[in-house]
Amino acid sequence: MTKSVIHTDNAPAAIGTYSQAIKSGTTVYLSGQIPLVPETMQVISEDFAEQAHQVFKNVSAVCEAAGGTTNELAKVNIFLTDLSKFATVNEIMSQYFEQPYPARAAVQVSALPKGVQIEIDGVMELPE
Predict the structure, then answer these.
(1) Which of 29, 67, 76, 124 has the most neighbouring CB atoms within 10 Å?
(2) Phi and psi of 114, rounded to 5°?
């Protein structure tokens, strides 16, 4: 099975040695997205809710570039620098997903790239 690179200008460009996503068969592996505005490659703001919205927008853009939507995500990993923001993540996530929701992990980490407060990656399964 071959793998192909997924790229969109509607999500931040990779800031390291990785691709926005890789498609292998009907499975798409999304790299972590942080709250960078694609046009400026700057963090949207210091406000956590604005950061979370931007991350979900970036994840959505990569899903669309791969031929799906967030509703095809089978697994999502959410990395937070402050786990007390968990309820806010749930509220915002519900605006970008429909039931059935993907499997999910949410963990607190000591730091994230560019000093952001949230990063999300995932695995998407496209219809055959």
Answers:
(1) 124
(2) 60, 20
Place of tokens 């990785």: 18
Mean pLDDT of 6-26: 96
For the segment 15-31, the average pLDDT, to the nearest whole number, is 96
DSSP letter for each residue of 49-110: HHHHHHHHHHHHHHHHHTT--GGGEEEEEEEES-GGGHHHHHHHHTTT--SSPPEEEEEE-S
Helix (H) or strand (E) holding 48: helix 48-65
**What pLDDT digit, counting tens, does each position of 55-100 carry?**
999 999 999 999 999 999 999 999 999 999 999 999 999 999 999 9
